[in-house]
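Quick review question:
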């Protein structure tokens, strides 16, 4: 028993140290940390960014010229040029729904970033994969860091697939894309303008020239930046279709029963918010716009896998403070299906369902996406 307690305590301390390290790195990448030490580290990161940029050019040139494969069906890529959440998963789900409405069988290629191994199947599962499987149970889905490998598997097992959607595919040059959709978060488009690890850019801004469609997301959270951002994109790629989009709240759903509730159900109630996503501020903002009273916000790193200790701490806070409900994102909810016994009132644990809503050039966007079917 003592040994188990020591191991649990050690695991908790390691998790805390890991979270602290990620916050420190993020603060340096976003210029939040200053001072002499920060300046020294910034210089080191800047040099590493240069090395990363050179390596990126070689990898891209090699894959595009020597190893790129053209598949038997069209491929639509959904990606971004920064790290962090821009809404790729809601966009992928919107595209699946669009093709479904047209009677077109669509498959998805995902990487499964920071996922875990499924003991039954041996496959990789992360929050995005679990969410896609929950919303689309019969979805042809390939999960592998090598998208060519997963594409071959999906097309072999699902010969009826007519189009593939490649999630987080803008930097995946091993597969020919028929349409490149790039998402940009208007609340933090390009960070400090530097490449990883000094900044949040995966590629230089000139990479936007490869995009066919540029989607500006969360425009309702930062309307003052939209016009300038459009001009910046136009300077790089004058012919790109630019559309604006918002994360549209759909409803609340009880995590363990699946019962859906309207927005009035939690209006003006005291709740705890919990999220393990790249942009927790947007989640909190969405709840506030729905007039939900947030008494405490528990924020964890992106793709976080929760521990029993963490859930117990949240439960203890709710009991002591008299908070009525716990609200989380869908990505968090799908990872907690087997944790029902750790909540003192499972009926009061909810997830906010959201969708990607195109609010400008909607017809042009849909026409451009569906045009890949006639290649």
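Suggested answer, residue by residue:
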């Amino acid at each position: 028993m003592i040994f188990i307690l020591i191991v649990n305590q050690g695991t908790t301390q390691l998790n805390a140290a890991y979270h602290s390290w990620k916050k420190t790195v993020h603060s340096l990448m976003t210029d939040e940390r200053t001072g002499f030490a920060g300046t020294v580290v910034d210089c080191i990161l800047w040099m590493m960014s240069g090395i990363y940029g050179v390596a990126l050019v070689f990898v891209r040139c090699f894959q595009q010229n020597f190893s790129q494969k053209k598949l038997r069906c069209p491929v639509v890529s959904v990606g971004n040029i920064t790290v962090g959440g821009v809404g790729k998963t809601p966009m992928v789900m919107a595209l699946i729904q669009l093709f479904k409405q047209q009677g077109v069988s669509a498959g998805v290629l995902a990487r499964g970033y920071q996922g875990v191994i499924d003991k039954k199947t041996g496959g990789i599962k992360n929050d995005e994969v679990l969410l896609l499987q929950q919303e689309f149970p019969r979805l042809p889905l390939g999960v592998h860091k090598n998208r060519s490998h997963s594409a071959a598997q999906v097309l072999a097992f699902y010969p009826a697939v007519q189009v593939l959607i490649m999630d987080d595919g803008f930097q995946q040059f091993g597969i020919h894309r028929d349409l490149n959709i790039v998402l940009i978060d208007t609340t933090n488009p390009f960070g400090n303008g530097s490449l990883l690890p000094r900044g949040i850019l995966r590629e230089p801004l000139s990479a936007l020239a490869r995009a066919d469609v540029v989607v500006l997301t969360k425009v309702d959270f930062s309307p003052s930046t939209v016009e300038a951002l459009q001009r910046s994109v136009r300077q790089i790629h004058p012919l790109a279709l630019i559309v604006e989009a918002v994360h549209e709240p759909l409803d609340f759903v009880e995590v363990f029963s699946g019962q859906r509730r309207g927005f009035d159900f939690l209006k003006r109630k005291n709740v705890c918010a919990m999220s393990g996503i790249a942009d927790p501020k947007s989640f909190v903002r969405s709840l506030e716009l729905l007039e939900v009273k947030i008494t405490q916000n528990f924020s964890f790193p992106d793709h976080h896998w929760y521990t029993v200790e963490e859930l117990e701490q949240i439960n203890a806070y709710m009991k002591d403070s008299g908070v009525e409900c716990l609200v989380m994102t869908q990505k968090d909810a799908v990872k907690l299906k087997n944790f029902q016994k750790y909540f003192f009132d499972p009926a009061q644990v909810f997830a906010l369902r959201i969708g990607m809503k195109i609010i400008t050039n909607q017809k042009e966007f849909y026409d451009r996406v569906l045009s890949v079917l006639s290649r």
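Why it works: The chain has three domains: 2-62, 69-247+357-374, 250-354. The radius of gyration is 21 Å.
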